[in-house]
Amino acid sequence: MLKGNGMNRYDVVVIGGGHAGCEAALASARMGCSTLLITLDKDKIALMPCNPAIGGVGKGHIVREIDALGGEMAKVTDRTGIQFRILNRSKGPAVQGSRAQADKQLYKDEMRRVLESQAGLDILCGEAEELVFEAGRVRGVVISGGRQIAASAVVITTGTFLNGLIHVGLKSSPAGRVGENPATRLSQSFLSVGFDLGRLKTGTPPRLLAGTIDFDRLEVQEGDRDPQPFSFSTERIDRPQVPCYLTTTNEATAQVVRDNMHLSPLYSGRIEGVGPRYCPSIEDKVVKFPDKLSHHVFLEPEGLDTDWIYPNGISTSLAEEVQWKLVRTIPGLERAEIVRPGYAVEYDFVPPTQLLPTLETKKVRGLFHAGQINGTSGYEEAAGQGMVAGINAALGVQKRPPLILSRMDGYIGVLIDDLVTKGTLEPYRMFTSRAEYRLILRQDNADFRLMGKGHELGLVSREDYERCVEKYRQVEGEIRRLSETRVLPNPETLEKLRRIGIEELRAPTTLCSLLKRPEIDYLQLYREFNGAEVSRHVGEQVEIQVKYEGFILRQNQMVEKQKKLETVPIPADFNYSGVSGLSREVVQKLEQIRPVTLGQASRISGITPSAITLLFLLLEQRRSGGGGHKARAAADGNA
Amino acid sequence: MNDTIAAIATPAGEGGVSLIRISGERARECALSLFRTPRGARLDDPAPRKVYFGEIADPAGECLDQACLTWFKAPRSYTAEDVVEITAHGGVWVTTRILQAILDQGARLAEPGEFTRRAFLNGRIDLSQAEAVADLIAAASDRALHTAVSHLKGGLSHKLGGLYDRLIGVLSHLEAAIDFSEDGLTFQSAEESLRIVRSVQKEIQTLVESYRQGKIYREGARVAIAGKPNVGKSSLLNALLQEDRAIVTPFSGTTRDTLEERVRIHDIHIQIIDSAGIRQHPEAIEALGIERTRHALERADLALVLFDASQPLDSDDRLLIDTVRGKPLIVLLNKNDLEPHIDEGEIRAQLPQAPVLSLSAQTGTGLAELCDAIYQTVAGGTTPDTSLWITRERHRQHLARARDALEQTCQSLEQNRSEELVAVDLNLALDHLGAILGKTFAEDLLDHIFGQFCIGK
């Protein structure tokens, strides 16, 4: 089959070749749908326009979940990463996050290779200019030159390209990324459907030439000695690993910023979009935290074969000549040369409260949105949504029930539920504090949580899935053995305990109870009281599950009542305005979001606990068929 | 959308004035259509929050009563909706006719508590204020009224809000240390967190303990009278019931065939429990009724333990002492009009915490002192204008659980546990406080973190 120029009808069309688009297209094609990926420039597929890194705390969790569902980001990172580190290593397993510096060039080459070799997936270079609608459904797209391509589902992953506007100093120009035209016509097509649009802003630092940096004077930051892969299927990392370097800004840097505030588009009112609070520009840092005299700057290589360095921490949209001055105030960068100035980009997003939890739009059936268009930031957040949008686009075409990930299933579930329920006012990034089930949503058990779903969808091989099932069967067996093995306080036991740092044991106990003590780890216990042979991964799970158990129970206690609300569905045609006792504001919000469950309703901002109680009573009454109550009649629309 | 509701807001009966309240979109329209100025004109454009004098006529034009009308424009009203209040002369018949006329204009009769519910749902008051309104309506005594008023002003919300914020402050450090560990920030030490959590926990504990006090002001105190037959239990009960009306008044509406009698001491209701047991004949089969005494003590806030001062202690008295030991109690040496033979020292030694009073239920000497002692014991030394009492069982439960969760938090901090584990119990505590305040904290937390730390490496 000819790639991208033969067919005029596909099951699924994906517009945009960024991280969301790649996962969406792969998932759809792998599920057996004929799929077309439309991108402006094949060379920009899976580009990392900002920092050259994948993962982190919270983000790393998402990457592992994508992998468990059968996505590609983790595998490609493992093959192209040049420095792997586990963040929060000193903390518990739930909040440890994998992070990798990726070689930007290798990453996009590798992802493109995967896409191009995927059966059932075509790639077309061109601009999608218009969406074709008919009777509330999407029917296809028109690409530049007027060619029309029919599709049953369309996934939009256009990133910052909708009405993109780039700012460097007081100069601004329409662009999606630096040097690339924005998708202006597509923006208009969106407006014609009647979507509300919002405006956001993000930024990136200048890139520096490695040869002009005095690395010898800087603190070296090495990766982990024993790099841990992202993917459950990667055996080990064998690419050479490189270090990063750490330096800091100082009072002179701040002075440059202060002296040139009049040249800042951010502070002169030229930028209207809302930027992320967690990733402020150096201008923001100086203005908002004047007492903090010094900020970290991490110097991250963009790849093995490039001399571009990414200075993480000095994102800026000040004028180019100011950026030169600013960079050169920083130790080690006194002679540094900028190869590309930093910039800010403003772009339209489609506030995600207009989406269902499947990422399908409420207004247009068959139309899905994923990535920055939904107001998120980050490659990982985008890829996670791309995965879900691609899967649901395919499921819709195949007339199968949709995939909705709950907040208990994973961070992707948290992400999407937050987006479609609360919307976002700033570029949304994942934090572990957003997850109320944090202790069970760990990187280490993403396979346990999601691989079954991935397998059911046809995205995870039977072999991989069976290996996962076997692993957790062994974990269960070992935990049972530990809780059934009794330990008596006799001299022999006491001697063993002394060797692993326990001085006393007064009453008989079990190995399981011993393992709960903070000072004992599984390996020590296993050595002294050996049992069946288990793999390292099984041992790790056993240890985590036993040690966390009490905390998990208490965490679940808090979310128990919430869990109940999650199981109460709200009919799609529920008449909120007929409920006596709901304020107009509450009714308005519920009608706008149209929550799928009472649990989702309870998370909408401004919805009071008593409104939820009221709805709960009505829905229960409705379900049990109990009659006669006037409020129920009103809710049924009969009043 | 809310329909328009109306009700008589003053208690039923023949009062001096009565208040009819109307709330909802059509409140103003309903009321104005019935109102005439003294000159007989319609009042078309009233200013908000201004009192207008005139008369209320039924739709047929017949004057029902002279009345004052005040219009409260949304959202500056009790329910945050348009509200009209009509003050008319009391009288069941007239007030009901006015209400009926308003209902005829399209308003609906309000359900009990519906005005307050709307005020809550519209965000005018929070959950603890809404509950305080219910308390206010049902307040059993002046002191309870004071507590209710203090809650209504947001006293409890204010107090809990402060504790809540202090815990959010600790949590934001823990959370920032997890999510932004690479950003080169400095966080609160575990010791500092521990200090704050401990002090919040202590204040919550005080509130939990105040529940008993609060409940006493709201619902009255339960007092048990214990003692062997013939020691003077019935005389004491009768004496309490008949004591000077200025201090003790029988509570109307109780009947003598119930097991409990109610009296009032100053501003507190006292329920005397197990009075049937007290009234049993001395020749009853079970001499002391230990089981019944135990049962009564379990339910009582205070026990009055009677001894016959004219007799030496016997085995029944000693059994009684064992039974009541450890309970809040007042020792009464009755029959002080007779020659004393009792060993007061032994009682004091056996029940060292208890105050000992000498009195004669027969002659009434010492009764006033007893009333003061009961009042002091159940009402405590706290003065009403500086303290907050928890008056709701729901609040007490949430606070007790918050306190326990904070205990776990402290243990985790002391064991140097990782932040996400400390956060589990801290979240749990915040959840319980939030349940009283009617709020969730997810958004507060991020705002707090971003406001406090320069995030972004």
Describe the structure.
The complex is a heterodimer of chains A (about 650) and B (about 450). With about 650 residues, chain A is of the alpha+beta class. Chain A has 20 helices and 22 strands. In chain A, strands 1, 2, 6, 7, 8, 9 and 20 form a 7-stranded mixed beta sheet that branches. In chain A, strands 14-15-16-17-13-18 form a 6-stranded antiparallel beta sheet, with helices on one face. In chain A, strands 11-10-19-12 form a 4-stranded antiparallel beta sheet, with no helix packed on it. In chain A, helix 1 (about 20-30) packs parallel to helix 9 (about 380-395) and helix 6 (about 250-260) runs antiparallel to helix 8. The radius of gyration of chain A is 27 Å and the shape is globular. The radius of gyration of chain B is 29 Å and the shape is flat. In chain B, the strands form 2 sheets. Chain B has a 7-stranded mixed beta sheet with strand order 3-4-5-6-2-1-7. In chain B, helix 11 (about 315-325) links the parallel strand 12 and strand 13 (about 330-335). Chain B is about 45% helix and about 15% strand. Classes of the chains: A alpha+beta (about 650), B alpha/beta (about 450). At the A-B interface, strand 16, helix 16, helix 17 and helix 19 of A face helix 3, helix 6, helix 15 and helix 16 of B.
The end-to-end distance of chain A, rounded to whole angstroms, is 60 Å
Q: What does the main sheet of chain A amount to?
A: 7 strands, mixed
Which range does the strand content of chain A fall in?
15-25%
Radius of gyration of chain B: 29 Å
Q: Judging from the principal axes of the Cα atoms, what is the shape of chain A?
A: globular
- Summing up helix and strand content along with how strands pair, one would put the structural category of chain A as alpha+beta
Oligomeric composition of the shown chains: heterodimer
What is the percent of helical residues of chain A?
A: 25-40%
Low-confidence stretches of chain A: 626-639
Number of DSSP E strands of chain A: 22
User: What is the averaged pLDDT score of chain B?
Assistant: 79
Helicity level of chain B, as a percent range? Answer: 40-55%
Evaluate the radius of gyration of chain A. 27 Å
Question: What is the H/E string of chain B?
Answer: EEHEEEEHEHHHHHEHEEEHHEHEHEHHHH
Beginning-to-end CA distance, first to last residue of chain B: 48 Å
